[in-house]
Write a structure and sequence with these properties.
Layout: H1 2-23, H2 28-59, H3 63-74
Helix pairs in contact: 1-2, 2-3
Length: about 80
């Protein structure tokens, strides 16, 4: 879980940087590159959380929570 928190803090920093870039009128190409980096970091973190949650459910034979997770994924 510590890795996830560290990753989320980094994404938060990237988002704050994006806000500053927008406020200062940075060129669109630089903003888009930073958006892509933040999105990729968030997507990777999401994958890690999802993988961890599914593994935990599987190890505890928790089909109820597994179904909840799968329903959440399908809403994407």
């Amino acid at each position: 879980m510590d890795d996830i928190v560290v990753r989320l803090k980094k994404v938060s920093g990237q988002i704050q940087g994006l806000v500053r870039m927008m406020e200062h009128g940075e060129p669109c190409d630089k903003v888009i590159v930073q958006f892509q980096a933040a999105k990729a970091a968030l997507d990777k973190t999401y994958s890690l959380v999802l993988n961890s949650s599914l593994q935990e459910c599987m190890s505890h034979h928790d089909s109820e929570n597994m179904e909840k997770i799968l329903k959440l994924i399908s809403k994407k």
